[in-house]
Design goal:
Layout: H1 2-17, H2 25-32, H3 36-48, E1 53-56, E2 61-64, H4 77-92, H5 100-111, H6 115-124, H7 141-154, E3 156-162, H8 165-169, E4 177-187, E5 190-197, E6 203-207, E7 211-220, H9 229-233, E8 245-252, H10 256-261, E9 270-273, E10 279-286, H11 291-297, E11 302-306, H12 308-323
Antiparallel strand pairs: 1-2, 3-4, 3-7, 4-5, 5-6, 8-10, 8-11, 9-10
Amino acid sequence: MKQNSDIHRLLRIVTLLQGPEILTREALAQRLGVSVRTVYRDIAKLNATGVPVDFDDQTQAYRVGPGFFLPPLQLTADEALALSVLCDDVAQKEQIAFLAPAWRALAKIEAQLPPETRSELAAMEGHVVVRTAQADSGEGSGDVYERMRRAIATRRALDCEYESPSTRDDPGARGPFRFEPYALLFSVRAWYVLGLREGRPGVRCLKLSRFTRVTPTHAAYIIPNDFTVEKHLGNAWRLIPGDTEYNVVLRFDAPIGETVADTMWHPTQEIEHGEDGSITMRLTVAGLEEIVWWVLSMGPSCVVVEPPALAERVRQLAAQTASRYTAPASP
């Protein structure tokens, strides 16, 4: 029993020393409920078994050397099942592209699970399924993803070429440019990268599948400390924040209103239920160019109450769409 207690304490030491806290000998002893002398002995045992525990003279604290980790042998059945579903259904089946390494990692984890946990996973296979809209990986985008990832990790800029409807219409925009990626973002069935594009103001959002060339350089760059994807997007409907924020009010008829209310479409949304089964959605959106297409996708069950600019844009686009189905006049 004493041996099991010692092993448990040694494992806890490794976990604590790999965490964010700076733990002196005294703090570690207090956390474990043992004497400082016992901490000395435990550290010696860990070093003797190959766990690289070092003492930092500057902080007067212990740390486990970089690159060392304990295999995840303590997963519960529900934790293992959650990982299995995400890795098998989402990563392996490429519902979200470029996450296949997660599935390979799962195979390593499953190999170290206790037999009873593996049996429970096998019994649940095919009975918990995740289905999302298939991602647009794009031919060659895997290499683009990896080069963007490495550029972010090493803070080295890229020389790129990019093709989109706007560049096809503007010959001056087709040439190569220097790009400094800040973050990779998966949204609306595809991968995007946020960063600074040479010759364009502000942080840009570019689709990975539209890059035609990505070449690493040795030019260093800096990602601002205060940059986050959430801060950049702000109240954008999806990916592109506009300069003006609008208070949007939408009314949805029954029965589609109940379905709409079941989903969190935007972090600012508020839902008001009507007695007839309709709902009123209120939200604050930065820019209208993205939300207009979502409103149109709801068909006649959705009416824009505010703002007038959004209502007029929906009216124009709906009229243009209807005109394409107008029967030609009889001769």
